[in-house]
Amino acid sequence: GIRGCGKNSNHVKPRILLMGLRRSGKSSIQKVVFHKMSPNETLFLESTNKICREDVSSSSFVSFQIWDFPGQIDFFDPTFDYEMIFRGTGALIFVIDSQDDYVEALSRLHLTVTRAYKVNPDINFEVFIHKVDGLSDDHKIEKQRDIHKRANDDLADAGLERIHLSFYLTSIYDHSIFEAFSKVVQKLIPQLPTLENLLNIFISNSGIEKAFLFDVVSKIYIATDSSPVDMQTYELCCDMIDVVIDISCIYGEGGLPYDKESMAIIHLNNTTVMYLKEVTKFLAVVCFLRKESFERKGLIDYNFHCFKNAIQEVFDVRVKVQQNRKLLSQRRWSKLSMTNGTLSNPH
């Protein structure tokens, strides 16, 4: 049946499936977001011919498995256990190549979504309208509107209006792919409302205008405050993280490029200050604030200290829950094997 490449792991982690037609850009997305591959290098990637499983556990918040599927999956192949695959899935990302005629992709999307929904109605269905870097803004919006309408019409015709699809315009040549992945991952974090709330309290008490909680390795933002996200602001955050990591790698004192002393301040030329601080081994807060607010850095640092402790508590609870789940499943197994043992023991 299924042969995975990459490490296998326990099944507590949510699973993200990457699906779509051959050459739509699935493997490139994974390599750029999680392996820091430069977009130009992806041109040399081979076509995926078997399911590739990969653990993404760069932080205890972003811990999930990504399954990259080959383009042509035959749902009617008896060795393909899609029931098992869809049952453990948190999100299904379907990648559509926007530069291609997407009639076939849409019918494939429909088949995939309806199959998956039957097995597991709780899956988040995410559609990446991909390779939009060559299109004008008007053209992008037009494509999105067209694909959105056709995909939803297909579902309506099948009497499946209750299935919700989310659409994103993506490209590996800018930050849109990281933004889209951030939104997908956030839906899989049960603590998201708590994190958002903590960020809201932190910024309102510190005179900060916008704050992001970033997973440093993947540049996915785990949470942000409730004010809207501006793409340019997000790009600046990603660039700042890159600068901090690069300089630490080159000039830092041995060891890790990112640790509990990590901190950076950048004064932008429009009276705005960017401030990055380490929250945990994997997470950083990046804030935007006005120069005059930054004069009260002592207050900001005190509030940050309170925020960091609160985040640590959220982490501790999460770790405890995961450990309890593991213990429970281990106990169930040992009970099962004990009862099986006594049944098969004739004495």
From TrEMBL:
It catalyses: GTP + H2O = GDP + phosphate + H(+). CDD domains: RagC_like. Keywords: Cytoplasm, GTP-binding, Hydrolase, Lysosome, Membrane, Nucleotide-binding, Nucleus. One of its GO terms (biological process) is cellular response to amino acid starvation. It holds the Pfam family Gtr1_RagA. One of its GO terms (cellular component) is cytosol. It comes from the Eukaryota. GO terms for molecular function: GDP binding; GTP binding; GTPase activity; GTPase binding; molecular adaptor activity; protein heterodimerization activity. It is found in: Cytoplasm; Lysosome; Lysosome membrane; Nucleus. Guanine nucleotide-binding protein that plays a crucial role in the cellular response to amino acid availability through regulation of the mTORC1 signaling cascade. Belongs to the GTR/RAG GTP-binding protein family. This is Ras-related GTP-binding protein. The gene is rragd.
